[in-house]
Prior knowledge:
Largest sheet: none
Distance between the termini: 46 Å
Structural class: mainly alpha
Amino acid sequence: MGERSDHPQGPGAAEESGAQDIEATVVLGIRITDWPSLRAAAQAAVGELDFTGIDPDGQRAELLREVSEDPNAALGALLHPDRLVAAIPGIEALGGTLEISITDDFAPDFAELFPLETDDGDGGDWTLTPRTACLLHTQLIGLADAAYDDLDEHLDEPVTDADESDWAVFARLPQRTWNLHRAWRRTLARTFDDLADDLALGEWPLPRCLAEELALRMALADARALLGAQPESVADMMGDLPADLYDYDWDGCADELFGVFGPDDGDAEFDALQRTEQLLGVTHPEGWFLSYEDAEERDPGRGHRR
């Protein structure tokens, strides 16, 4: 095989063809709609890369771990300038950088995702309204952010009575969880995102395990508290979402969202929330993430936001 030439048509071809150096700037707005497919594509891309230097196998394994857990890392592997340029004939890369950031501009269209049955908002049966879904989604995302911030600041440190106020989320959990390890806390943080993702897809956030029951309780409590303390802020948040009779019906949310999945046994006098409380007390926290038998298991390879 001969040596590669930067000018395939000869030394003077670049000048004769009018070749020139160009700086191209591309700004893309991207919404991830199928994380498993994105993850698989990124894993395949990493498998095609050549790693040099010290411990190339370790480098590949580390990058595979990153793209398997982080959508930003997966996009980075697929959108790297060298990879994009390689797919375009007749050019070569002179250098480049890739910046990926999460934008605050995107918000689910809750009016479309949770349509009201009639224009006057009287649809008969109870429903999760656009405004309720929006406020609940906001609280779930906020709790996930706060939980990951707790992890970044405290790592494996136990929660104590003395520093309880320094924790945004994990001090609110039952005290039997205060000494648990970082991996458990990270999985708990993901439950808020899982329920928020349900809402962003137009689905009711029906808890599929004990941890999600606890996460949804916290989000409902925070939504109720925010509405009571800052009604004007909540009104601003809603924008032009349609109003409905069932807006912010937290008791209705408790009746309709809890108990759809999960065991039916236990004290016949207990409602769904009381049965959950009983189960949380007798189940080790490591088992709180086990899916209920009648609930579809979430993708085990979906990774964590951080």
